[in-house]
Model the fold of this input.
Amino acid sequence: MEDYKYLFKVVLIGNAGVGKTCLVRRFTQGLFPPGQGATIGVDFMIKTVDIGGDKVKLQVWDTAGQERFRSITQSYYHSADALVLVYDITSRESFNSLPGWVKEVEQYASRKIISVLVGNKLDLHKEREITIEEGNSCAESHNMRCLETSAKDSDNVDRLFLDIAVELTNNVRNVEIKSGPVEEEIRDHGSVQGCCR
Amino acid sequence: MAAATSLNFDSNSLERLTEMKDIHEAYEYLCKQENTIAEEIDELLEHQTNLEAKMSTLYRSVPNLQVVNSDAKQLGSMVSFTCDLAENVSGKVRLLDLAKGRVQEAIQRVNDVLDLKFCTDGVQTALQSEDYEKAAGHIIGGSVDVALHVLQDAKQNLTKIVREKFDAALVTADRASVERFFKIFPLLGLHDEGLRKFSKYLKSQIADRCQEQLSQASTLDSADRRAAVVYADTLTILFEDVGKVVEIHQPLVETYYGPGRLLQLIQWLQAECDEQASRIVDEFIRNREFSLKSRQVQALLHRGSGRTSTAHERLDPRELDVMLAECTLLNSRTELYLRFIRKRVLNDLEMVGNDEKADADKVAVLEKLLRECLLSRRIQELIGNYIVMEEYFMRESVIKAESMDSLEQGSHTSSMVDDIFFILKKCTKRAISSGSVDCACALLNHTTTILEGDYQDSLYAKLRAGFPSGSFDVAQAYSMLQQGRFPTSSSDTNAAKLEFMTTVNNIEVSLEYIQSLRRSLSEECAALLIQNREIGKDKLESCLNDLGAVTHKFKDVLDPVESSAVKPRLKPWVDSFLSVNHDIREDEFSMYEANDPFVQNFIMNLEQLLAEFKDFMTPSNYDSLVSLVTNEVTTQLEQAVLRSVFNRLGGLHFDKELRSLVTYLTSVTQWTIRDKFARLTQMATILNLERVTEILDYWGQNSGPLTWRLTPTEVRQVLSLRVDFRSEDIKRLKL
Ligand SMILES: Nc1nc2c(ncn2[C@@H]2O[C@H](COP(=O)(O)OP(=O)(O)O)[C@@H](O)[C@H]2O)c(=O)[nH]1
Ligand SMILES: [Mg+2]
Done:
């Protein structure tokens, strides 16, 4: 039998080239892949993490950004527990596409979904086209959390996914509280460690 | 002598000796010294004879040594003579060698000159007689500087001629000439040029054939059997053409150009295939009004629920159906073609036996070509739109099935369940048949979404109003159906009840259907994976699992029936228990035995209630209902007991009532009932005790196999229902 308490689906979306595949590989495999081609359709990777003593399995779906794969990607929104909307801080164009993505999310995703805005390629901050403030205010206007990451330098990547895992775990526990024994809410994940896949 | 040094006697010191004692000492010393010296002399004399013997031997060998000396001198002069001689000879040999080399060179040159003469003659005659293969063959032979320019001229001349002739052959599509000149290029070292020119020829062939097919397609009679899939057919012919070209010409390329060149050829050919396929796709889009339909679907979907659109702005689902089938065919043919190309090129690469790195690079080039060629992109675009339209088609068909829902007399479920699952299966199967894992997954996801979303909602919405109260006349209910349809607005509770029960059954059957849908789709997926070298297996499995897990979201379907149809009706029946006195005399007890005041009636009422449902429910649903009813009966009856008082005979009577009830309920279901009555049975046991302390025979260590379901507090509470037990005794009990 599989050894985990909760399974959550996390779906990454955003324009092609913003670094979704790199973020997923960095988190699940701990590496920054050398020039791989653009993603075709969708793909997923698994990583099990420990959240407050419970094994939580994250199924991270990586999607293609191009328009022609949009309908494939959309079919995954409904069952997603969390959506990570990624832009590239060195690309105004990727940032300008965000409203379109948000609209899609609103249209297809379930209402309980958690969504996080991510500005990637933080290591290229010298070539930054989008300020932190711009990112923040965009996130705020769509009721999202916001985070800047670097898949290359591994900045904030674990934090991004672990925060999501903690929030989702707490949500499930809150539902369980109504019917079962009260479990303490996890406030941070200082104790949280990734563990083997 | 050692002593002498220590005492230092010499002649001077002897003379200075004055004391007698000293003189004696010196005398003794000198005597001792004399002895020692005498011994030494003896020893030396002993050696003398030995030495003399050796001396005489030496004297004897002197003349011998003189002979040796002269011999050695003679030998020295002989060696130097020999040396001079050898030096002399080897110089001559070296000269001879040089001379021999020169002679050989001279011979080679003569041969070359002869060759060249032959080649030049050959090239010229070959050129004259238009035997270009021969001419090119001659060119390889030539190598001497002197006449090199002659040959280079000839080569240039030949190359020019071959090019011209090849181009001319291309124009006239003279196949024989094309193939002839194609073979000459590698002889001239022009592999790439030859291959490129040749592929140009092949490309034009492919293009011509395809254009011909496409114009036939556009004029095809719409009544033709293949009309609905004519673009898929045209695309198939194109792929077969390219396939044939590869099949026929690969051996030729391999023979004359060597292995490992197929990738390059394919890269050039694919450019043509891309262009032609793109035209076919364009024609498909134009003639099937693909974009128009796609836009319409998008607009309809974006409006929110499809339910709001009026009939005339809807697309004709049948028309859509046909086009969707062709779409998946276009994709599956493309996948097949791309697999063929991959296999061919990989085989060709394998034959070369390059180092791994070079191979990996070439494979990467191949994969990139297959993934990103225009053909792939166009088809991916098509499939992207297909998914949206298939989803729409599926949703619309589901809505239609719901709206046409009907119930046949004697059937537990209504038509929409079968219809909807048929639609879901058909559409998702079609998506799987496209050969694209992502497309298959997308429709699996949409199926899951529909089932756990709209479908589940609409079923449960029918239960939300609850089970209508009042009696239930089955015949009446069926008569209210209008051609199997439930009256849309009716005050008739019978029809409403029938619809309610049907919905309950629909849900139960849906659970089974979900699992069998999952099973049959998973078989389809297995076939897809075999073609696909197992790539995408995890994705498909994940999506199939999600579909299977929908079952968990269909829960507690009978709860609303129970709470609205059973609970309120049970209440007055159970309440009648309260009106039966359980503090009774012997004669009353006998009277109860003869003419039961409560339980017979209660059982009869239950029987009637359950009978109402039995005919409308699937057997397993009916069992679930009995189980729910039993739960409710025991809960309510417990409360009634706690509100009554008993004496010993009353307790005995209650025990009898309980047994009748358990026997009845056990008889109507497959499931076990007794356990649900455990608490009540234990209450009856307590109410039957002779004395308060008798409870201790059953409690704690004495409980035996009995597991108490009552807490000590509850036990005391039940004991206190007995009017004949004193509360002090009960308080004093140690439980
Ligand atoms: N400097 C930098 N480059 C990145 C980072 N993440 C991704 N990239 C590069 O951006 C390009 C696109 O990345 P990819 O993950 O394929 O993007 P996707 O299309 O969103 O999946 C690749 O060349 C990556 O090497 C990052 O954090 N820093
Ligand atoms: Mg990617």
Q: What stands out?
A: DSSP finds 26 helices and no strands in chain B. Residues 404-548 of chain B form one domain. Chain B has four domains: 4-46, 190-390, 404-548, 571-732. The CA atoms of residues 90 and 532 of chain B lie 78 Å apart.
